[in-house]
Amino acid sequence: MQHSRRTFLGAAVGGFVIAPALAGPAEAGTAWSRVPAIRRRIRPPRFPARTFPITRYGATGDGTALCTEAFRRAVEACSAAGGGRVLVPAGTYLTGAIHLADDVELHLEEGAVIRFSRDPADYLPVVPTRYEGIELMNYSPFIYAYGRTNVAITGSGVIDGQADATHWWDWSNDPPPSEGPDKQLLARMAEEGVPVAERVFGEGHYLRPNLIQLYRCRNVLIEGVTVKDSPMWNIHPVLCTNVTIRGVTVDSPHGPNNDGCDPESCVDVLIENCTFDTGDDCVALKAGKNADGRRVNAPCLNVLVTGCVMRDGNGGVTAGSETTGGVRWVFAWDCTMSSPHLERAIRIKTNPDRGGYVRDFYVRNVTVGQAADAVIEVALNYENKHTGPYFPYVGDIEITRLRAGTAPRAFTLIGNPGNPIRGVKVTNSVFENMTEDDVVSDVTGFVLRNVRVNGHRV
Known about the structure:
- By secondary structure, this protein is mainly β.
- Helices cover 11% and strands 43% of the residues.
């Protein structure tokens, strides 16, 4: 059911409540009081004052000599010595996969570029990884760590995935060869309970790897670097604890599924002072998908997003669509979002195949200059699925002090028949130039307090 703004902003119509202007609710105040404790727990790792320049191990920064073996030797020497810094001096270093080890900081000096090979064979052998919320054995992510403690990627250099329309990105759609058949095969394996070790893809298959994936790691830092042109998601921590992503620039607006930063099933994550210009969601919180998400059953908890700039992208701060393990206690504040190609500012997306939950999602002090679709979207019909065996719980969403300039609409809120969105509260916010009616259906507990749309209080 679609409502015009005139229809649904009547008091207590269809589950909506238009409340008088009041201070923020006590519940939100109590929730925000959790932030200092979360932030205190998130501490970047520290490393011994030892330096291992990759040039000492045979790397040549001419952009043509393959330096994979030099990176491997430098990382092994650093970890064996008890940890330190693997230094990438100014220059351009062509390489295949880089695998980090315990107590290793990969540091790019100013003027340093790590440029990744376009040959898929340089990302073999296959490693344990996750593809769109499902575990498998696949091509190695370009920078990868598995089960490590104290790992970092820092500096002012550039990490260039070199993906383009004829390398990696062309796997995303027709004509063949493309990822479609492999995505179906992987989903079927997960539904049938095939062991992860037997879900072997890689050579002869077309599931794209991520640019940076840190898997089952503890004490993670990514700071200062610029990342660009990933085959798929750019920065993807999975099942990690204590993650800091600070001052990073994601410059990847053209590639399909080029999400900026996707913490998946992680606990205690800080994303601070980053800039995102992406071909998909800027920040997307995830927790596994469908049968495999229920098998792993690991939520994404305690995520702080602050001081970030979002430009191109499908969503600014997003949860989903892989929500099966649950997403909870998300706080986003003091962010700026604007672009003709930024589709939505705040976005939650899932469907009745996912299950799980997205709840306790809090946003404040966000400025949205321009968006191409709804400023705020909560959609439980992702991929046009309205019914299914695993309805998700989505609710307890509170947004305050949001100011939006130009967009088609303020709200797109779509629940499922019989499974509504359970609570969206927006307070002290302004939507200045909305050109279309809002879309609201199957929602209970939609509360607006001191909200203005196109100059009118609603």
